[in-house]
């Protein structure tokens, strides 16, 4: 049985169409109703202030969406942004704020109003705010100063001074000051250019390290959170200790009637022992030799070693064995 023939051209066309469809879905995943979601709004600003596509949209410091479009629309800048699971009122305000010291921006949304904002209605300029970008201002200043012909400026001030040489002294003094200012700027042109170039390099370097600064700030937030958790744990420990002290105080108060007589009797026992301390010390001192002698008496077997003195007169004893005084057992090798 022969297999049905395949059409490689048709299979290739279908494969390319499927790959293109998948690519389109991948690029527009955020717009899909299930895996994407969110609502898109637009707002007009007087200037973009460095806001770019992909910047965060935050409500009370919490990220709720991203900026999807920044484009010029007539005499204003129209910004499109998408938010998810966030209510936007019909009097909400939107502001472009500085996220970091390096000039990164964030779109801050303040949801206000009694009704929901219509996504098809653009938020007007009266409800938006743009910040002053210091980094961009420095960059523009550097570009502007670099384009100034300081020599021509100095010559123009000199020409003006010569033209107004017959004017009153106040006018000549002002023009002379402008001429001196132009000469000073001209003499410092190289230093100013180097300074502004270095400033631009520093801002660029800081912008390149923006991710590291963000990671540092994130680590600082983690550290503060850990300190907060430790503080809560210590607070719980102190609270538990206080509760334990209260319970112990209650236990002591409940058992005072029982513990009082016991402690009083124990006090009397310690008084008796204190008064008889000398007798007990002497008894313990005598008990040692006594028990040692008892041990010596019964330590040789199942009998008692004993010594009887005085039964036999001293005259019957061998010479040198009788004690000189008293009844003392003889010692081996003794001279007495």
From TrEMBL:
Domain Mammalian cell entry C-terminal: 119-296
A GO CC term assigned to this protein in UniProt: extracellular region
InterPro entries: Mce, Mce/MlaD, Mce_C, MlaD_Phospholipid_Transporter
Pfam families: Mce4_CUP1, MlaD
Domain Mce/MlaD as annotated: residue spans: 38-111
Record protein name field: ABC transporter substrate-binding protein
Lineage start: Bacteria, Bacillati, Actinomycetota, Actinomycetes, Micromonosporales
């Amino acid at each position: 049985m022969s297999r049905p023939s395949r059409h490689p051209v048709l299979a290739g066309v279908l494969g390319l169409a499927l790959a293109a469809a998948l690519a389109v879905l991948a690029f527009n995943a955020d717009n899909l109703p299930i895996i994407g979601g969110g609502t898109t709004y637009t707002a007009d600003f007087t200037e973009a202030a460095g806001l770019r596509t992909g910047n965060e949209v935050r409500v009370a410091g919490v990220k709720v969406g991203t900026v999807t479009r920044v484009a010029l629309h007539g005499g204003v800048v129209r910004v499109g942004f998408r938010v998810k699971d966030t209510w936007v009122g019909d009097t909400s305000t939107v502001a472009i704020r500085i996220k970091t010291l390096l000039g990164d921006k964030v779109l801050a949304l303040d949801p206000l109003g009694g009704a929901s904002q219509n996504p098809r209605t653009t938020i007007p300029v009266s409800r938006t705010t743009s910040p002053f970008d210091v980094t961009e201002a420095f960059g523009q200043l550097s570009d502007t100063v670099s384009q100034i012909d300081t020599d021509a400026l100095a010559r123009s001030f000199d020409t003006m001074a010569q033209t107004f040489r017959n004017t009153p002294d106040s006018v000549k003094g002002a023009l002379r000051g402008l001429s001196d200012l132009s000469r000073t700027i001209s003499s410092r042109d190289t230093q100013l250019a180097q300074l502004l170039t270095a400033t631009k390099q520093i801002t660029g370097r800081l912008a390149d390290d923006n991710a590291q600064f963000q990671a540092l700030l994130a680590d600082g937030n983690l550290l503060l959170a850990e300190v907060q958790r430790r503080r809560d744990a210590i607070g719980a420990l102190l609270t538990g200790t206080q509760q334990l002290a209260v319970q112990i105080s209650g236990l002591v108060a409940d058992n005072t009637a029982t513990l009082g007589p016991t402690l009083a009797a124990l006090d009397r026992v310690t008084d008796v022992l204190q008064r008889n301390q000398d007798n007990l010390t002497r008894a313990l001192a005598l008990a040692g030799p006594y028990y040692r002698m008892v041990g010596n008496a019964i330590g040789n077997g199942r009998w008692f070693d004993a010594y009887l003195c005085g039964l036999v007169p001293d005259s019957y004893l061998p010479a040198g064995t009788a004690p000189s005084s008293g009844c003392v057992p003889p010692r081996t090798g003794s001279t007495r």
